[in-house]
Design brief:
The chain is of the alpha+beta class and about 325 residues long. Helix content is about 45%, strand content about 20%. The radius of gyration is 26 Å and the shape is elongated.
Length: about 325
């Protein structure tokens, strides 16, 4: 091994790596271990803040009077507050669904299944609460015994619901960030996912299978020292081929036995995304948001060269 590889090897505890990655064989020597950095999930934390601010705007519109004064700014604020008053709870639901749609359609790193699902759930909580109030009132008129177990709905509840929704998303983001672990040995790259105990996967990629590498730290990643290293193989691992898809596990159109397409209108509207083919951006398909990505890029290249120079792996000997 080169001095560069030996330097990485000397900085880790092989026993600790094998504890996290029990699939590492006895013939492998751990070289490096890592996971997504905190800042690599900053976009999801920002989305949580947007969810809170949306709730806070509807809370503030009810609690505070329209600003008085002349000028375009006062007019816009008054108009905005009036629109919230007129639209009510349904306006909030529509606003949240638009956020979910824009976020999912844009195919950002925040456009995955659980983020989109949670935005929709956050939108429906006030709506279901509001409907429970209506059903409780109607049941009294028809002699039914249904009573809403929740307090009476009003705009004040947007604030605690906003705090709850954003905190849940922050917690899920933190768990999601710590669900991924990466290891590099002298023979393979290992990618392990364990998100909420039911979404698990393990990849072991031998260096002989790697056709290309790509490191693309974003601008903020260059400043903060993190980025992605993409591992491309002949089998298609590392390539993201995206189509129109729900992101919730439900296809936008289902082909019936007769070959006719049935549209799922609500899911179809939320689900449609931009079409694009690119390297995979999911933490389960690459070394996502790791620290010092260019150093790891060089490390993998040196290990690939070392494996290619082993007896039996040199094409010149064939």
């Amino acid at each position: 091994m080169s001095d560069y590889i030996q330097d990485f090897k000397s900085k880790i505890d092989p026993h600790a790596v094998r504890t996290v990655f029990p699939e590492i064989t006895d013939s492998e020597t751990p070289i490096w271990q890592g996971s997504p950095s905190f800042f690599s999930m900053a976009d999801k934390y920002i989305l949580a803040i947007i969810i809170f601010l949306t709730h806070a705007v509807f809370f503030a519109a009810e609690q505070f009077d329209s600003p008085e004064g002349d000028g375009q700014m006062y007019f816009i604020l008054s108009l905005f507050r009036s629109l919230i008053d007129i639209s009510g709870t349904m306006g909030f639901v529509l606003t949240m669904l638009i956020i979910a749609k824009l976020n999912h359609y844009a195919n950002f790193s925040t456009s995955g299944k659980w983020t989109t699902s949670w935005i929709i759930i956050s939108a429906l909580i006030p709506f279901i609460w509001y409907l429970a109030d209506i059903f409780s009132t109607l049941s009294g008129l028809v002699g039914s015994n249904f009573e809403n177990p929740l307090p009476q709905w009003n705009y004040f509840w947007f604030l605690p619901l906003g705090i709850f929704s954003s905190l849940v998303m922050i917690l899920l983001t933190f768990i999601y960030q710590n669900a991924f672990h990466y290891a590099i040995t002298d023979k393979r790259i290992h990618i392990r996912k364990n998100f909420l105990f039911f979404d698990t996967s393990v990849h072991g990629i031998s260096f002989e299978k790697i056709e290309n590498l790509k490191a693309n730290p974003p601008i903020i990643g260059r400043i903060l020292g993190y980025g992605n290293v993409h591992i491309l193989t002949a089998s298609g691992l590392g390539i993201q081929q995206e189509s129109v898809d729900t992101g919730l596990g439900v296809p936008e159109e289902i082909v019936t036995n007769k070959g006719k397409k049935t549209s799922l209108s609500l899911f179809g509207w939320i689900s449609k995304q931009r079409r694009r083919n690119s390297v995979a951006q999911e933490p389960s398909d690459c070394l996502y948001g790791i620290r010092s990505p260019m150093k790891i890029y060089r490390l993998i290249n040196e290990l690939m060269d070392a494996n290619n120079n082993l007896p039996g792996n040199n094409s010149d000997l064939i």
